[in-house]
Fold this sequence. Notes:
Layout: H1 5-34, H2 38-49, H3 64-83, H4 87-90, H5 94-101, H6 103-120, H7 124-133, H8 139-148, H9 153-183, H10 189-219, H11 230-246, H12 252-264, H13 275-302, H14 306-311, H15 313-336, H16 346-354, H17 360-371, H18 377-405
Helix pairs in contact: 1-2, 1-13, 2-13, 3-8, 3-11, 3-12, 3-13, 5-9, 5-15, 6-7, 6-15, 7-9, 7-18, 8-9, 9-10, 10-11, 10-12, 11-12, 15-16, 15-18, 17-18
Amino acid sequence: MEHSPAILHAKELLFLMGIILGVGTLTGFISRLLKVPDVVMFLLAGMALGGAGLGIINVKVDSTLNQLLLIFGSCYILFDGGASIRLNVLKGVWPTLLSLSTLGVLISAVVTAFAAQYFLHLPFIFAMLLGAVIASTDPATLVPVFRQVKVRAKVAQTIMSESAFNDAMGAILTFAVLAIAVSGGAFSISDNIISLLQQSILGLIGGALLGYLAALLIAHEKYSFLAEYAPVVTLMSVAAAYLSVDNLHASGFMAVFVFGMVLGNKDLLGFKMGHDEESKLEDFILTTSLIMRIFIFVLLGSQVNFGLLHQYFWGALGVVIAFIFIARPAVVFLCATPNRKAKWTLKELIFMCWTRETGVIPGALAGMLVGMKVPYSDVIASVTFMAILITILLQATTTEWLARKLDLLEV
């Protein structure tokens, strides 16, 4: 009996999803045995099964499936990270967080741009575009790492919050520089600051309103008629928060993070769930976040272009080394040390310098530039994937070791 093309395609997708989940489960178990963050093993598994390896997974970067998993997966992981943030922990570090997420992105981009101009001989505007693409950190990596490695709360939650808030700045800076690069226009600091504020404020307001509404419906003493459907409410609200704010040309990623923060701190608003409902919701969020993590990083690994990496290897390596050992320390010390109220210690600052993985959002931005056929986009994509591979494989695997050496692990 013949099957329609739609049925055959559905079976292919079902097989692909089964392979990814099966491999993710196995490599997740191995990561626990080896005591390394699971995202590292997911990435390696994707590289082995992708087009450059066994060729079992072949999902194009610009496909609808890939974009759906990338967008919703990143949103749900951001929501999970926001829900794990405790506002009373962050109240003394807000100046640092704001500075890291705005000025820090600009500093990182500029330092990286000079390195790219030196090592890869790019015109400065395209070197700046490269720096903007990889300037933001990756919540999809950092949130799971800090779930597994129990670092001092103030440090862990500052780094996780930075990784969520700086996505908006990184994207805005990327497209501002891109406009100049392709049109030869002038860079307007005032216009871009206004754009950043607009996107950030709309993201904050949208996420806070939806978070309050979700908390009201699942945890209010009188109006919590959706309490037993709390897991479904989170899925619906994460999608709604991202899409509604994104349609207003603001930061949907910031909205889902703030939504998670409000829901995770609902007790401060006077809302309280029953123990059974709370446990059920937490288990659902952890499981769903794990599934999204598996899909994102296995697919990301499968899409690594080893041809580009080989072509620009040494220049890209030089840029990434400067990015890790010059740009990031400059960002941390220039943005964190002025905040005396936070009482940052040298050990905490050193840890923050090392812990800044690159991942989903820079990868997506680089993919968009390649799809738009922007000049030097192949070089930008090469450096971006090099940054993703090195920071995840090197920094994520050494997070616990460094935290232990610096005596930052919670007892």
